[in-house]
Amino acid sequence: MMDWINDTLLAHSALQAVAVISLLSAVGLTLGRIRVWGVSLGVTFVFFMGILAGHLGLSVDADMLTYAESFGLVLFVYALGLQVGPGFFSSFRTGGLRLNMLGAGVVLLGTVMALAICRMTTVSLPDMAGILCGATTNTPALGAAQQALKQLGLDSSGAALGCAVTYPLGVVGVILALAVCRKLLARRPEAATSDSDEHNQTYIAAYQVQNPGIYGKNLKDVASHTMCRFVVSRLWRDGNVSIPTFDTELREGDRLLVITQERDASALAMLFGRQENTDWNKKDIDWDAIDSKMVSKRIIVTRHEINGKKLGSLRLRNAYGINITRIYRSGIQLLATPDLVLQVGDRLTVVGEAPAVHNVEKVLGNAVKSLKEPNLVSIFIGITLGLALGSIPIPVPGVELPVRLGLAGGPIVVGILIGTFGPRLHMITYTTHSANLMLRALGLAIYLACLGLDAGAHFFDTVFRPEGLLWIGIGFVLTFVPVVVMALLACRMWRMDFGAVSGMLCGSMANPMALNYANDITPGDAPSVSYATVYPFCMFLRVIVIQVLLMAFL
Questions:
Q1: Are residues 243 and 282 in the same domain?
Q2: What is the β-pairing status of strands 332-335 and 273-275?
Q3: What is the pLDDT of residues 271-292, one digit of tens each?
Q4: What is the pLDDT of residues 386-419, one digit of tens each?
Q5: I need a surface site. Which of 7, 275, 390, 428 has the fewest CB within 10 A?
Q6: Edge-to-edge strand order for the sheet containing 240-242?
Q7: pTM here?
């Protein structure tokens, strides 16, 4: 029995490494579900299980540890890039640009503070890099910092220790900062509309045609007189309902059901004549019951031939007499404009007569079973390209050594690019949401288990020294101050909605636990929309900035 335990858990071998990492991941994930005051650490608890095991003397072969840690990090960041890619560049439009600039302010303010504190104290810059990563709960940035330190020939264990020591307060600190900001801003009335609500959020409204200037004109001519983008889903005339086309002429008294963006609703009311008061955005509307002849069905794009084509090039409205009103992609509603590039996995809301909708279903595919088979070829090709990109030296003015994106930066950049532009090159990059979560969770669990084992041997010695207490205090300052400062600037100077600002802060700090708190204290989905808007850019920015910080000032 003892020989079996020794061979499986203690004696260094490939079998022992896999068994130890798997056991630590299983126990950490189980304990991570426990909530304390509504907050749980989730997969991050694997990190602390690794620290405990390392402190107790458990270890694995150094080469196996390095391989597993690197592979887990690459798998995690590539899957993350693949997921956020479709919405990465579009997040910079309209209100999303302001949110991303504020998120970048949080990142840069924390980095400048870390550098200043490093100069004023005895904490070394490698240790400070780890403290900053823990304070911002950003494990990809820690991976990038470790890669940069190894490139410089320096020990990276201090960075891992700094992250481990400051991570718990990094999680809680954002929640405390949001609570303080909410108290400070409690007397300020909420803005009616947040900038983040404008980002990719469709809005349904009904109008009556009462503008004499558009009587007798077709929809194509009417659309050319406004900058607003809209889709007319249904037209009621003389008690009958129909699917309008670009050639449909408008008459006085026509009722139109229009899908647009909320910010454009009032402008369209001036264009058409009058907006009706009915709320068409409630989730419990039975669209099939609105009219007897028309049905509304959500169809999934599964045919590979459709991947990368523009919606207008399919000419579905003219060929089948149907209308596509909304498109769901990665949990975001998109307006069905003709120039929208379709991707495998898009969910299209199609309105029309039942036989026509059935024919469109054949064109688009709607074979849900085919989506359950992930395209592993694109995943492995993407990882290979990411590693190649990460190894390319990039000269930075003022930095002696060139910067490399490394294992953390290269794969996430390629993942974002493939997720964004892959469909235009007819690459099948779609993975189901559950499959993407599986890849990310698997990679992150492996990485955190190895990271904890590596840091665990000296963790408690560091925490219970005066130096450890200093690290914890610095980490809390780096968490709390940037969040409060940027929240006050956004809400008081730019008069932004607190719900949108809180989501932006959680996204810039990569803190989903704090997002749960923001959703609990704020009505509506503004925090979640803002979080999704800034998370990709801020994650990418932290990975790059931490490397530049080490390369430039070491």
A1: yes
A2: unpaired
A3: 999 898 887 777 666 665 666 5
A4: 889 888 887 767 666 676 777 767 887 888 788 7
A5: 7
A6: 240-242, 231-237, 255-261, 202-209, 273-275
A7: 0.62
